[in-house]
# Entry
Amino acid sequence: MITVDGEQIHVQEASLEVDIGSGVATKAGKPSGSLRGPVSAKGMMKIDGEELDKLLTKALAAGSWEMLEALDVMFYAFVGGKERKVEAFGCKLKAPGLSINTEEAEQPLHDIEFDVTGEDFVAINGVPLAAPRSGT
# Structure
């Protein structure tokens, strides 16, 4: 479930890829600790046509899909039989993927990719995945 401008949008499926850049510091050719690098995250969610219509209405009110504000996404992932609360902050939605099949009996799901742009980045069960960055 995500919330856009006060309206809840039901998400059928969601995925999130997180990259926390790091490297090995060296001194005189020998390892001497670690370096923190850039972090990034992107994801994808699948919604049905009814939920897409809700987002399109919000986009129209904003002036366009591109003008939609970044939003915070929260979902629950089940891994190894355990529930995990996943939060991604400042998610900027990309244009929806449209699947059109006039012969299909089931309502298609639409893919919406997003980039995580918020400073709070990503947390799992309230634990931030990246340390705060300074000087940015």
